[in-house]
Specification:
Distance between the termini: 51 Å
Number of helices: 10
CATH superfamily: Vaccinia Virus protein VP39
Number of strands: 7
CATH architecture: 3-Layer(aba) Sandwich
Number of domains: 1
CATH topology: Rossmann fold
Radius of gyration: 17 Å
Oligomer: single chain
Largest sheet: 7 strands, mixed
Bound molecules: S-adenosylmethionine
Shape: globular
Length: 237
């Protein structure tokens, strides 16, 4: 294994799954593999308990938007966890990629979860609002203009809180992911795109240097970044 320096972000690296001409069977197996990968590395159970569950309404429904939801496994997991905790969480997952949208829509339906092929800017233009807005593994995907747009859109769309979760770039993360996924996920883009994602992702200081006021960066564990926005605090100011 060749360990790149990772001192700086590699913004030129491209994920294979973003290529519109990539092998559709490999892509479908990649979407299917997001669920175990996210369960192992993304830390949403903890983020749900700390940053989302405190906002769920005891009476009536709470709404949540997952931007760039891919195969939709995080959207479905959040709806299930909330239901198990006795809350009515209505989740909307959006993704502009027709292949991701198609794949997500064809899974066994989970109560309270729906998927749309849309961009966050379209929801802003339509005047939509959600109590909570999240994304997973989206920040590193975007160029600077798209990232600024995402933060502006998500702050507008959220009534209560925004949680953007992503990988934190580091050599240990790269080495562990490379070794752990070596024999796993054959016939998918998981290993290659995962390593590309780590090369494209931020360190905490880099992300802090790029965010507008009203946002904070937290580092739950060694390998993750959370970019948080408290819409309620902003409304109180
Ligand atoms: C690495 S995948 C992550 C999917 C899913 N969130 C997960 O964690 O399994 C990134 C997703 O973001 C979507 N995406 C790319 N650019 C986007 C944008 N500007 N707005 C919303 N989603 C975008 C892609 O289509 C892709 O499905």
């Amino acid at each position: 294994m060749i360990l790149p320096s990772l001192v700086a972000r590699d913004e030129q690296a491209r994920e294979r799954m973003d290529d519109p001409r990539c092998d559709p069977r490999r892509l479908a197996r990649t979407y299917a593999s997001f669920r175990p990968v996210n369960a192992a590395v993304a830390g949403w159970r903890r983020a749900y308990r700390r940053h989302l569950r405190p906002h769920l309404r005891a009476e009536g429904a709470t709404t949540l938007l997952d931007i760039g939801c891919g195969g939709g496994d995080v959207a479905r997991a959040l709806a299930r966890w909330a239901r198990r905790d006795g809350y009515d969480l209505r989740v909307t997952g959006i993704d502009p990629d027709p292949r991701a949208h198609d794949w997500a829509r064809r899974r066994t339906p989970v109560a309270g979860v729906q998927f749309h092929r849309k961009l966050s800017s379209e929801l802003v233009a339509a005047g939509e609002r959600f109590d909570l807005v999240i994304s997973n593994h989206l920040l590193h995907h975007l160029n600077e203009e798209q990232r600024d747009g995402l933060l502006e859109d998500s702050a507008r769309l959220a009534r209560r809180a925004v949680v953007h979760s992503d990988i934190r770039r580091g050599r240990l993360a790269y080495a562990l992911f490379s070794v752990a996924t070596w024999p796993l996920f054959p016939g998918t883009f998981i290993r290659e795109d995962g390593l590309t994602s780590i090369r494209r992702s931020f360190t905490a200081p880099e992300l802090r240097a790029r965010i507008p006021s009203g946002w904070t960066v937290s580092t739950p564990g060694r390998f993750r970044l959370l970019l948080l926005h408290d819409a309620l605090a902003r409304a109180r100011r």
